[in-house]
Known about the structure:
Blueprint: H1 3-38, H2 41-76, H3 84-116, H4 126-160
Helix pairs in contact: 1-2, 1-4, 2-3, 3-4
Amino acid sequence: xxxxxxxxxxxxxxxxxxxxxxxxxxxxxxxxxxxxxxxxxxxxxxxxxxxxxxxxxxxxxxxxxxxxxxxxxxxxxxxxxxxxxxxxxxxxxxxxxxxxxxxxxxxxxxxxxxxxxxxxxxxxxxxxxxxxxxxxxxxxxxxxxxxxxxxxxxxxxxxxx
Length: 161
């Protein structure tokens, strides 16, 4: 496989996976966060316990694949250090690492707390917990969607040559 083909394949997967990730962010901004704000405390906790269970099982694979695809794309363009494509991919990677750090500091502790709650004996501060989750995802949406935009711009600059 030629250097150009490797870069093309890796950029395809970077675009695809970062697009899926941005799609999660788009769904969150358009429907999930507004709907969660309206949920009763019990409905929110039950919903979040289920969604966190399924997302955690899938993100353990998806997250590293997304980061790996970006790293391979960066490596495949390393010969073009002066190229905007290279630097937009680096920006996408930095945004994804920023999201990972933000999620580790904010979302993971909230998820652990929510998983520990008993639906039949909820604490009085569930609404505060819910708002923290919503606000955390308001921030993460920026990371999710911006990283995809950076990958798209990188591909555009590469094809523009």
